[in-house]
Amino acid sequence: MASFNKVILMGNLVAEPEMRVTPGGMSICKFTIAVNRQFTTKEGEQREEVAYVDIDSFGRSAEVISKYLGKGSPILVEGRLRQDKWETPQGEKRSKLMVVCESFKFVGGRDGENSGGGEGGYERSAPPPRQTKAAPTKEDDFDEDVPF
Questions:
Q1: Measured distance CA(13)–CA(29) in Å, rounded
Q2: Of 75, 96, 107, 143, which has the most beta carbons under 10 Å away?
Q3: Amino acid 114: pLDDT
């Protein structure tokens, strides 16, 4: 049977991200985002529900998230669901559904600006300077070489 496991979430970090590095050198960043949903009940009352989602990111993405994002920062995460299972010292079986971050985007701008940001694995930076094209010269006229 075929299956598909893809999650796209946009929300705000509820606390500072927790970064650690494994003995093998792999960076792991754990963070939680709050995802809000606003709706109107049958009675016309405005309601809001909040879901808190735990997310793990790895490698360069983990490093960038821990360096540039903090409590309250907006983020768009694309990833997959993973179910962690463990047993407590008392012998109780536990499980938790969480998201493994495969890519992310900064949402909003620096210092509250409302603009797009960089993509996972890349630091935010100023856009490249606008380049102007020089007027075409006879050497730039390739229309003769086009076979159609």
A1: 12
A2: 75
A3: 44
The reply to whether 12 falls in a domain is yes
Structure-token pair, residue 72: 């309250």
Residue 58 belongs to some domain of the structure: yes
Relative to beta strand 18-21, strand 7-13 is: unpaired
pLDDT the model gives residue 1? 87
Q: Which residues contact 39 (CB under 8 A, 6 or more apart)?
A: 46, 47, 48, 49
**pLDDT < 50 stretches in the chain:** 113-148
Rounded Cα distance between 102 and 56, Å, is 9
Q: Can you give the residue range of the structural domain that contains 25?
A: 1-37+48-96
